[in-house]
Amino acid sequence: MTDKMKCREIFEKISDYIDRDLDPDICGQIEAHIKGCEPCVAFINTLRRAVELYRKEGSPAQDIPRKVSANLREFLKKEIDAGVK
Amino acid sequence: MATDTANGEAASGAEENKAEDLEFIAQVKAGSFRAFERIVNKYESRVYNHCVKFLNSQEDAEDVLQETFLQVYKSLESFRGESAFSTWLFKIATNGCLMRIRKKKKVDLVSIDKPLEFDGSSLQREIVDWSKNPALMHGNDEIKRLLDTIISSLPEDKRIVLIMKDVEGFSNIEIGQILNMTVAAVKSRLHRARLVLREALTKYFDGTLDMTSAGKIGNER
Hints:
Structural class of chain A: mainly alpha
Order of helices and strands of chain A: HHHH
Radius of gyration of chain B: 20 Å
Helix content of chain A: over 70%
Number of strands of chain B: 0
Strand content of chain B: under 5%
Strand content of chain A: under 5%
Oligomer: heterodimer
Distance between the termini of chain B: 43 Å
Radius of gyration of chain A: 23 Å
Shape of chain B: elongated
Distance between the termini of chain A: 65 Å
Number of strands of chain A: 0
């Protein structure tokens, strides 16, 4: 079950697999493969966890600072009043 | 069933959102500056966050934010609604970010599109599964800083796809439209970026990566 080509194919499709963005047949093939391949399971678990961590911890969105928002409005008003359109 | 309902509600919300944008745009085209302010109110935070994450600089992000909305105002007449307004808006913002980066350093954005490399003919036999490491169970400031450092070190074409997909929640199709690339190219870059992220975290957990070397890891692949 852990022949070389299978592992290579898994490696190339892991992102799509964790995004559930694969044809069900291919997904089934991957799941059949990883039942017998601990390195692939570890690789998938750690890649999935890395993505989850980044989604959770990676630079959370913040409200725009008031000053930046005020500067934006001032800039746009000035440019538009100057006849940019 | 619950998922179908949730998906249906999300799709309905997205349609309402698009309809609202089109209404604002029609009003701006009819001369309403107030409607343009509503567009700014609606999107300024998302665009600003997008630029900050991409550029790693609040100052540069503010400049691109201003240029983006000015460009939107100037070009709104030519917006035909063939893609969602938000897609068009983020395309302008992303191009602004790319132009700013290119001004600062000459980068060949195409050259890294070489085929994925696979070390050897099989995965290593010994892959440590750190996915349940206790250090990950609770908020960990060091890991947050590590993630920021790793992402900052990625080449911009990988970084932008990773940010748009995994933080901002764009679909692969939307990312392709915004970055002018095929969905296959989006997936390829996303995959590469995630591999770098996984590799860095693996090194961190086996004790071979510190914060200083984390800042270089994105450029190694």
